[in-house]
Amino acid sequence: MTAVSLVDVTIRDGNQSLWGAVGITRRMVEGMAPDLDKVGYRAIELASSTLLATSVRFHKEDPWETLRAAQRLMPNTPLAFLTTGKRFITFYRTPESLFELAFTLLVRNGVSRLWVVDPMHDMEGAKRMAEMAKRVGFTDVVAGICYTTSPVHTDDYYAAKIAELDECAAIDSVYLKDPAGLLTPERLRSLVPRLQSTLHRLRLDEIHSHATTGLSPLTLLAAADLGMTKLHCALPPLANGTSHPAGPRLVHNLRARGHQVDVDVEAMRRASAYLQRQARIKRLPVGAPLEYDDAYYRHTIPGGVQSTLTRQLRELGRPELFDAVIEESVNVRRDLGWPIVMTPFAQYIVTQATLNVITGERYKQLSDEVIDLLRGDFGPLPGEVDQDLLDRAMSTRRGRLPASDGKEEVTVADLRRRFGADLTEEELLLRAVMPGEQVDAMVAAKQDSPVAALKGLLRAAEKRPGLSVAVSSGTTKFTIERAPEAVS
């Protein structure tokens, strides 16, 4: 029997997998947070840099305020953030000095747990990120091993990579991340003991596996059987499909198998019911268990990337190209030397495949991100790269630039000189990595909101003793009064 704890990924990965990363708003986080805090989760995956960006871009919401609201409403549950350590919001290599600022702000705004998972298995880079995270105040740093299938991703490959993490004192544990849902119970039973045998200080005791093939509910049960203590899950309607196993059902099955899970299932159901109401109101899709599809093992495109591709092709007026783009992604991945198909490389692969399909000629147009990948911005590719593609990329103006290693220095003083001396560090960081007009729209929305108006009234009242302001709408009325100053 294993004493299992659950990690909830509804807000971040469920939203990204099934709602294109844009479905959940701050109000929805606030609506479900009190019940989520009562469940007894080991941690809640609250955000990634993608979710911070979509808050600004699509909802005109300040993501830092969302983090603070979540911390206020979930004081008993560690809040977690996922990073590759290579990019923060941008799809190009982000300087590590900006990462240090981002990590500092995440801790300041309520996040205490960090997953560091480099998709290319650059373990030296992952260790630097872990050390940085500990230095700025993260209390729990988990390094990741990304599972995929390819001619180069063998047991020996994974064993060598996980062994590199063991010596890093800043890493508290290791988790197995299966972004495409490729793990089977049988594969897990052979892989986990092999990887654990290479570790001496650390333990591989956490698993994140998408439900894309329909197998992850069984894979998580096998993980508990192997003694893995932290299992990732989500709440309906953001469970199943290309997301993660549904938490309430997972608890039922774990207990039926004899494992111990100390959670409040009724609180899970209340939070789930709130989300389901929101899905009906906003006409958002509901995740459902998927049938097993063996062809999925050919392309391995994660669910979140598939949902984003579907949305983008629909916006382009070419939804019928979906199957062709997915098939071309297989060829692009092979030509690129078998990078793992997860963020950001999944997006790079799918974007280049889309260009190949739309233009009708393979690599007639190369995306900047693919050139950066081939140039070495993200480290060596795991397999052999197609030479013709490499030559074409390196002959471009961008390809002739030196590889970016993330070591360039960007200071807060630099950002203030560029964007303004009076901005908060949170806004400075957003302006450093996002289009200015999107941040401007977010700031304008904050200033025009009812909350901002109320705060303005309170500030006015504070400065004027004896002021009385009454505001009414229909049958509702409230009054703000500032008592006169006492006369001595």
Explain the overall architecture:
With 488 residues, the chain is of the alpha/beta class. The chain has three domains: 3-282, Aldolase class I (TIM Barrel); 297-394, Cyclin A, domain 1 (Orthogonal Bundle); 450-481, no CATH class. It is built from 21 helices and eleven strands. It has helices at residues 10-18, 26-39, 49-59, 63-73, 96-108, 123-136, 155-163, 185-197, 216-225, 247-256, 265-282, 296-299, 303-315, 322-335, 345-359, 368-375, 387-394, 412-419, 425-433, 436-448, 450-463; strands at 3-8, 43-48, 79-83, 113-116, 140-146, 173-178, 204-209, 230-233, 260-261, 468-473, 476-481. Strands 1-2-3-4-5-6-7-8 form an eight-stranded parallel barrel, surrounded by eight helices. It has a two-stranded antiparallel sheet with strand order 10-11. Helix 2 runs antiparallel to helix 11 (265-282) and helix 14 crosses helix 15 (345-359). The protein is globular, with a radius of gyration of 24 Å. The N and C termini lie far apart (72 Å).
Question: What's the helix and strand layout?
Answer:
Blueprint: E1 3-8, H1 10-18, H2 26-39, E2 43-48, H3 49-59, H4 63-73, E3 79-83, H5 96-108, E4 113-116, H6 123-136, E5 140-146, H7 155-163, E6 173-178, H8 185-197, E7 204-209, H9 216-225, E8 230-233, H10 247-256, E9 260-261, H11 265-282, H12 296-299, H13 303-315, H14 322-335, H15 345-359, H16 368-375, H17 387-394, H18 412-419, H19 425-433, H20 436-448, H21 450-463, E10 468-473, E11 476-481
Parallel strand pairs: 1-2, 1-8, 1-9, 2-3, 3-4, 4-5, 5-6, 6-7, 7-8
Antiparallel strand pairs: 10-11
